[in-house]
Design goal:
Structural class: mainly alpha
Strand content: under 5%
Number of helices: 10
Number of domains: 2
């Protein structure tokens, strides 16, 4: 995802998340999308406090006892990827731009503006790339969010349309992010494209960090909430493909474990995991880490009795 930074000489190509949506975001209330789609089976019980529908809301008659059955009958991977990309990527963008209905059935902008701008999201945040078969492949892109001031300025401008209710609006956006983070980490019970998952998490972290920064700079009220979420929870999993790649490219298992325990941000973990290791020079000499463990490195132990700095020569005072 292009909202995540990489070092100047990355060992891995930046992942690109395929655009897999089967339908356009409907502009309804963000938290009740699964109810409108008849897919409450994908929402764990502990998250359903977020999804209480309005009266007369489509899906409000859905059986409240509809069970979370994903762990027993997982939704097929393509269906789940499309559903969550529509909801947690485009739905979240629409929410922060003030385009979705609120709990009272209104919007911060008129319905026509909302419809037009939701359609524009699919032009601004989806790009087409020529593929080897002579066709095009669609990918998500967050470049517009990073390369122009329009997006953050628009988010703040729409936020201020809430007027005296601005703190309640911020608290609602906080609930949307909290719900999205928990759902992304808890509700996926089947194979899922890691790039698609990372792209959703990257957007969530970007919005969370943006709000935290704006609050610190007094651009928006703090609203007594903290925009700190575990977007990196499943990134660089122990025993996962990314860790295996790092271990075969010069990383020590103790270094990987340290990244997981010390660096909780997705952007930081992503950047570090793409760094080159074991090339000598600034990256340090190449060592054999096959006997190391996550508790400690044995390859870089120094024998004080025989150690001699490589720069030592007669007359050196260093």
């Amino acid at each position: 995802m292009d909202t995540l930074l990489v070092p100047p000489d990355p060992t891995l190509q930046r992942e690109r998340a395929r655009y897999v949506c089967k339908e356009q975001w409907d502009g309804g209330t963000f938290l009740t999308y699964a109810r409108r789609q008849g897919r409450m089976r994908t929402v764990p019980e502990r998250l359903r406090q977020y999804t209480v529908p309005r009266k007369n809301d489509p899906g409000s008659n859905l059986n409240e006892d509809d069970e979370f059955t994903e762990h027993i009958f997982p939704t097929p991977q393509p269906e789940q990827e499309a559903f969550l990309q529509t909801w947690l990527f485009f739905g979240l963008l629409a929410e922060f731009f003030g385009l979705n209905e609120n709990d009272a059935g209104g919007r911060l902008v008129d319905a026509k503006t909302a419809e037009t701008e939701i359609a524009a999201l699919y032009e601004d945040y989806v790009e087409e790339v020529d593929n080897r078969n002579g066709g095009v492949t669609k990918y998500l892109t967050g470049a517009r969010m990073l390369q122009a001031k329009d997006a953050p300025v628009l988010i703040v401008t729409r936020l201020r349309l809430a007027g005296p209710a601005i703190e309640q609006r911020i608290q609602y956006l906080h609930r949307c992010l909290s719900f999205s983070c928990f759902l992304l980490n808890a509700a996926i019970q089947t194979e899922f494209d890691p790039a698609i998952k990372t792209s959703i998490a990257a957007l969530g972290e970007l919005l969370s960090t943006g709000f935290a920064t704006a609050s610190t700079l007094k651009r928006v009220p703090s609203a007594r909430v903290s925009f700190s979420f575990a977007w990196a929870d499943r990134y660089l999993e122990e025993g996962g493909p990314l860790e295996r790649y790092m271990l075969t490219h010069g990383w020590c298992s103790s270094e990987v474990e340290k990244i997981r325990s010390v660096n909780q941000g997705l952007g930081t973990r992503h950047y570090l995991s793409h760094m080159a290791k074991g090339k000598g020079g600034l990256h340090g000499p190449q060592r054999d880490h096959s006997f190391c463990s996550k508790e400690g490195c044995v390859a870089f132990q120094i024998d004080a009795a025989t150690y001699r700095p490589s720069h030592v020569q007669q007359g050196c005072l260093g």
